[in-house]
Write a structure and sequence with these properties.
single chain, mainly beta, 10 strands, 138 residues
Length: 138
């Protein structure tokens, strides 16, 4: 009975058994001439323990990496891979244009508005969470 009650509480709280929830997963349309794309999302922790997003994978991409935008100086922005993205305990992190994002390198199909792209997120503590990226204008 306790297991059923605990499971029901997780459902009612809107969080997965991992202690993390992932919302607003999206990417912009990309024509065939663009080899790469970026995915954005919000990760919320319902746990007392911090976690890290350590990798991402999608069958729609040749390679998938975690990236950040940074100020390269002289008014120029740069982009570089990061090893992990920290998710604070009982906090959230948003991957958004101009900041942290999941980079889809070697896109294997066109991304048109309304398309859904599978994305697997791997966390150090929480394990794997599978989501769909909705392709939209913004």
């Amino acid at each position: 009975m306790r297991k059923i009650a605990a499971a029901l509480l997780l459902v009612l709280a809107g969080c997965s058994s991992s202690g993390l929830s992932v919302a607003d997963v999206w990417g912009r349309p990309s024509p065939s001439v663009a080899a790469n794309a970026a995915f954005y999302l919000t990760i919320e922790s319902h746990s007392d323990t911090a976690d890290q997003l350590v990798s991402a994978d999608s069958s729609a991409c040749g390679t998938t990496e975690l990236h950040e935008m940074y100020d390269a100086g002289d008014g120029v922005m740069g982009m570089r891979p990061v090893q992990e993205i920290d998710i604070p305990a009982k906090g959230s992190v948003t991957l958004a244009p101009g900041g942290l994002h999941v980079m889809c390198i070697g896109r294997l199909a066109d991304f048109a508005p309304g398309d859904r792209v599978p994305l697997t997120l791997e966390f150090r503590n929480a394990g794997t969470i599978e989501v769909d990226v909705t392709i939209r204008e913004n």
